[in-house]
C-alpha cells in the first residue's frame, strides 16, 4: 500500500516589513555622590577668597557705631511699612462704619429686651393685685 502524497506548488509570498516601535523614554542624568573619604589631590592649592567688606556703619557721637542693613533689606522693610499703613488707612473707614451699624443694631435689641422685661414685670404686678 502506497501513502498518498500531494504536490503543493510553492508560491512567492511578499511579506510586509513592520518597523520596530520606538518611544521617548524619560531619562535623568544620574547624580554623582562623592565618596565619604574624599580628599584634595596632592599638590592642590586652596582657592583664595576675597573678604567681604564690612557693613557700613552710622556713627553718632554719643552712641556706639550702628550697622546699616543692606539695600535689599531696606527696600523690603519700606515696602512692608507702606503696605501696612495703606491697608490701615483704607480699612479704618470701613471698620468704623461697620462698628456704628453694629452698635446701633445691638442697642436696639437691648432696648427692646428692656421693654419686654418691663412689660412682664408690670403684667406680673397687675395680676398680683387682682
Descriptive notes:
This protein is mainly α. 45% of the residues lie in helices and 3% in strands. The chain has 1 helix and 2 strands; from the N terminus they run E-E-H. It has a two-stranded antiparallel ribbon. The longest helix has 59 residues, at 71-129. The chain starts with 56 loop residues before the first strand and ends with a helix.
Q: How are the strands of the biggest sheet laid out side by side?
A: 1-2
Low-confidence blocks of residues: none
Total E-strand runs: 2
**Helices and strands: which structural class?**
mainly alpha
Mean pLDDT: 87
Tally of alpha and pi helices: 1
Span of the ends, CA to CA:
141 Å
For the biggest sheet, the summary is:
2 strands, antiparallel
Provide the helix percentage: 40-55%
Strand content: under 5%
Gyration radius (Cα, Å) is: 47 Å
**What is the succession of H and E elements?**
EEH
The shape is flat
Summarize the structure.
With 130 residues, this protein is mainly alpha-helical. It is 45% helix and 3% strand.
From the structure above, extract its key features.
single chain, 130 residues, two-stranded antiparallel sheet, mainly alpha, 45% helix
Task: Outline the fold blueprint.
Layout: E1 57-58, E2 66-67, H1 71-129
Antiparallel strand pairs: 1-2
Amino acid at each position: 500500500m502506497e501513502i498518498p502524497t500531494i504536490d503543493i506548488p510553492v508560491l512567492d509570498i511578499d511579506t510586509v516589513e513592520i518597523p520596530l516601535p520606538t518611544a521617548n523614554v524619560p531619562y535623568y542624568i544620574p547624580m554623582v555622590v562623592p565618596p565619604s573619604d574624599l580628599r584634595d589631590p596632592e599638590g592642590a592649592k586652596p582657592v583664595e577668597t576675597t573678604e567681604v567688606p564690612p557693613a557700613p556703619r552710622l556713627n553718632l557721637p554719643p552712641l556706639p557705631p550702628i550697622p546699616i542693613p543692606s539695600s535689599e533689606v531696606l527696600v523690603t522693610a519700606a515696602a512692608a511699612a507702606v503696605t501696612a499703613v495703606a491697608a490701615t488707612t483704607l480699612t479704618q473707614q470701613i471698620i468704623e462704619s461697620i462698628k456704628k451699624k453694629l452698635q446701633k443694631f445691638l442697642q436696639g435689641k437691648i432696648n427692646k429686651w428692656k421693654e419686654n422685661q418691663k412689660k412682664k414685670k408690670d403684667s406680673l404686678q397687675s395680676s398680683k393685685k387682682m
